Amino acid sequence: GFFRRSIQKNMVYTCHRDKVCVINKVTRNRCQSCRLQKCFDVGMSKELVRNDRTKKKKEEKRQAEVEIYVLSADTEQMIAQVCRAHQDTFPSLCQLGKYTTSNSSEHRVSLDVNLWDKFSELSTKCIIKTVEFAKHLPGFTTLTIA
Q1: Tell me: the pLDDT tens digits for 89-108?
Q2: Does residue 95 form part of some domain?
Q3: Is 12 within the bounds of a domain?
Q4: CA–CA–CA angle 95, 77, 94 (5° rounding)
């Protein structure tokens, strides 16, 4: 669907990471530009995308609804800074460890305590990372508490 929509709508995507994004099932929604490029790299062809039967109707409707958004240089820079802050703060969300449990009833009490300890540890890490991310956002450190 993504490839077909991109071709039929003549979408132009921009990569904010030098066109070297890793595209897989988990990360495919992070960079549309690199995702589309990977489609071409694996041999998908835009010439083979079928035209929509109701393309004219959709095109007329789209012409009536089209609004062109042009981002200013400041806005582009702000977006890049926020993306960079997020990538620096959360390099891999997959680094969270697994917590295994036992079904034995004799371990249930110690399990509950250990589970809450792990939950507390992960919650603390999440809060610290969220604050760290926010501190990298433009203007955040200059906000006043009201």
Answers
A1: 877 654 555 555 556 555 55
A2: no
A3: yes
A4: 5
Residues whose CB falls within 8 Å of the CB of residue 50, separated by 6 or more in sequence, listed in order: none
Q: Which two tokens stand for residue 35?
A: 């995702």
Provide φ and ψ at 30, rounded to 5°. Answer: -80, -30
Structural domain including 56 reads 1-68
Cα–Cα distance for residue pair 82/32, rounded to 1 Å = 17
* Domain count within the chain: 2
Residues 145, 107: one domain? yes
Q: What is the pLDDT of residues 27-81, one digit of tens each?
A: 989 999 999 999 999 998 888 887 765 566 667 676 666 667 788 999 899 999 9
What is the C-alpha to C-alpha distance for residues 111 and 105, in angstroms, rounded to an integer?
10
Secondary element (H or E) of residue 73: helix 73-89
Number of residues that make up the chain:
146
What does the block give as tokens for 117? Answer: 């300890």
